[in-house]
Design a protein that fits this description.
The chain has about 120 residues and is mostly beta strands. It is about 10% helix and about 30% strand. It has one helix spanning about 35-40, and strands at about 15-20, 20-25, 30, 60, 65, 75, 80, 85, 95-100, 105, 110-115. Strands 1-2-3 form a three-stranded antiparallel β-sheet. The model has no long low-confidence stretch (mean pLDDT about 90). InterPro entries: YjdM, YjdM_C, YjdM_N.
């Protein structure tokens, strides 16, 4: 007998398979194991090279970035230490950080690479 995962909604251990779906008899929640794996993969934030980023990583900016409201730009090669990931950002900026000379700001992960 294969070990089925607990229900993601109520954490009940009495789940069962119904075709390609998993069902919880306690709360009647139905889910697809494949969709659950895709959702977990969707929450992963990757840098420009495809490396997975984590809170506290150090990254390097890969191109000059204009800063709104400032006459200067963040230069290519700028090192950013101790990043914090933001998963539900409405504007696409998924990294919060502090950059020397600029202060607190948000960056898009597509413009950085992990060191």
């Amino acid at each position: 007998m294969s070990a089925l995962p607990n229900c993601p909604k109520c954490n009940s251990e009495y789940t069962y398979e119904d075709g390609s779906m998993l069902v919880c008899p306690m709360c009647a929640h139905e889910w697809s194991p494949a969709a659950e794996a895709e959702a977990a993969e969707a929450n992963v934030i990757r840098d420009a090279n495809g490396n997975i980023l984590a809170d506290g990583d150090t990254v390097t900016v890969i191109k000059d970035l204009k800063v709104k409201g400032s006459s200067s730009a963040i230069k290519q090669g700028t090192k950013v230490k101790g990043i914090r990931l933001v998963h539900d950002s409405a504007n696409g900026h998924d990294i919060d950080c502090k950059i020397d000379g600029f202060g607190a700001m948000s960056l898009k992960s597509e413009f950085v690479k992990k060191i």
